[in-house]
Amino acid sequence: MSARLRVDLAALTANIRRVRETVAPSELMLVVKDDAYGHGLEPVVREATAAGVTWFGAFDVRTAHAVRAAAGADARIFAWIAASRDDLDGAIAEDIDLGIGDAGLLEELADAARDAGTVVRVHLKIDTGLHRNGVRPEEWPAFVARAATLENDGAIEVVGVWSHIAEASDAEDDDARAAYERAWEQAADAGLRPAMRHLAASAASFARPEFRYDMVRVGAFCYGIRSAGGPSSSELGLIPVARLEADVVAVGDEFATIDLGSLHGVPSSLGHRTAVGTPAGARSLAAVGASRSLVAIWPGATVGDTVTVYGPGDRGEATATDLAELIGTIGEEIAVRVSPLVGRTYSSG
Amino acid sequence: MSSSIPGRDVSAPGSSPRSAPVARISRGALTANARSAWRQGIRRFDPSILDADAWGHGAHLVGEVLDAGGFVATPPRDGAVGAVDGPAVASPETTLTPSTLFGLPAAGASTTPALRLTGTVLSVKDLRAGEGVSYGYAFRAPTDTRVALVTGGYAQGVVRRLGGAVDVAIAGERHPIVGRVAMDVCVVEIRDGAVRRGEEVLFLGDPAQGEPSLESWVRATDLTAAELITMVGLRATREEAP
Q: How far apart are CA A335 and CA A337, in angstroms?
């Protein structure tokens, strides 16, 4: 298979700079879950560290360990999913900041901290309407009171209060923000003095300044993936970081064949729906098979020519989010579907 | 995790709750599917079985099953032009196909899916009438209910379009995925089910046993069984099962 995902680390650095300038004085937490959205966790974390990023969002403890190995001892690493006591013990061992949004899990974490003889940094999660993890508002006062007790006991240090917003509409996000502010005040009433408030992800971090608080958690925009239905990457000042390419392996009268297909992560439903980039510019992606796909022929097409399935657009290809919109999804799903068996290559510019 | 239900919380290696979904590949199911083809006189296998790490099932394990069964590969295909997947040499009457070996929907009821995908309940909570779930509030509760947050999202092959379209099973009971599937988690409506943190959630099992299966995923997503199962096998934590 000739297919490869080419990752432009200079574009990553430029996007990180752009995001930091936009949200300043708020801090950037770079979200690197799922192998840095398929871009490769270790190179991304190293590049970001060199660019001055000090906070990383890791989803789970397993990912947090990989970030610690790449970023070194000084990085602040935030994980918000712990499924077992092993996860909690592992987070404590690697000095991970934990997001906790469940009363039972808070008790389990306090037990783990006492057993380890250490103080764990905790970010308490309020459910402001998304109804995934997070403590419901009516249960929040008791939750923060219990957290204050555990802090006084020396098991935890509450360093943050955070939430996720639904981005269903500005009005509903405003309601969520009001619920967030109430939760912050109730935490203060309980005697907690956390330093970090964080609520916004990519879209709101750019569009809604009042959602930025002390830190924003941004993945997609740092990888140059715009929001589906939102402003273009050039309007946002962002550069798509990844380019999915494959070589032409056969040339016929109507089609050139590339050895990249749906088993490598290109959704078969994109067949006949989009253009891809060729040496002659945009051509139709006529069909996506299991291991090979067909592209409408161009003059002079030759075995070994490069076809770009998605990328920044300089060869006539669409972006990941353009493809996503054609099949009713978001650019992040296009990015993370690229198979781990497709090689990643890295360049700086 | 504590429980009053005997036998539920057997502590065996690899059985503790996990932050990522688990794909268990059954050597027994692969072997049974291969033997069933052998009894119909099939002696060769389509080499595309081994593509993409054996469609996410693990080329090493699948190669062992094929060797043990005495199958040999059909000759490699030419690089056909104009046909997406080359000439149709793989007739199910003469050749062991990926669908038959892996027990995918196209193979029908005579085979058993070799891959089982499970997640873990991370938390359970109340959801009141009118409240939304997940990004965009694509689901709103018509009445007071309860929901569980479950590991497994579109980065592990639980395709985003499955939200509001398919069921999972928890302790044998069916529950729908509600709202948008997120990158690493999804939300399941459990109503008054006795579901607790740490419990196992079945995404993909054996339709012959009445379990959720790939066929409903194909219907909901406009994607092929091949690409759906391959992504799941490559991105979940993969384990060999008996």
A: 6
- B18–A84 CB contact, under 8 Å: yes
Instruction: Give the tens place of pLDDT for each residue, A160-218.
Output: 999 999 988 999 999 999 999 999 999 999 999 999 999 999 999 999 999 999 999 99
> What does the longest C-alpha to C-alpha distance in chain B come to?
62
Q: Place domain A9-223 in its CATH homologous superfamily.
A: Alanine racemase (3.20.20.10)
Nearest-CA distance B66 → chain A (Å):
21
Strand partners, B34: none
- Closest residue by Cα to residue B2 from A135, A111, A93, A60: A111
First to last CA, chain A: 25
Kindly report, residue by residue over A232-260, the tens digit of the pLDDT.
999 999 999 999 999 999 999 999 999 99
CB-based contact (8 Å) between A303 and chain B? no
State the pTM of this model: 0.94
Residue B129 tokens, joined:
């009438």
Tell me what ipTM this predicted complex has: 0.96
Contact yes or no for A287/A272 (Cβ under 8 A): yes
Locate A149 and state its tokens.
């007790």
**Which of B93, B110, B127 is the last residue before a domain boundary?**
B110
CA A16 to centroid of chain Cα atoms: 13
What does A155-217 look like in DSSP terms, one character per residue?
SEEEEEEE-----S-HHHHHHHHHHHHHHHHHHHHTT----EEE---HHHHHH-GGG-TTEEE
SS3 A318: strand
Pairing of strands A242-251, A255-258: antiparallel
* CATH code, domain with B201: 2.40.37.10
Residue B213 carries which side chain, given as an amino acid letter?
S
Chain B residue whose CA is closest to A255: B82
Q: Is A263 within 8 Å of B120 when comparing Cβ atoms? A: no
A270-285 burial, b at 16+ Cβ within 10 Å, e below that, comes to bbeebbbbbbeebbbb
CATH superfamily for A242-347 is Lyase, Ornithine Decarboxylase; Chain A, domain 1 (2.40.37.10)
The CA distance from A133 to A127, in Å, is: 7
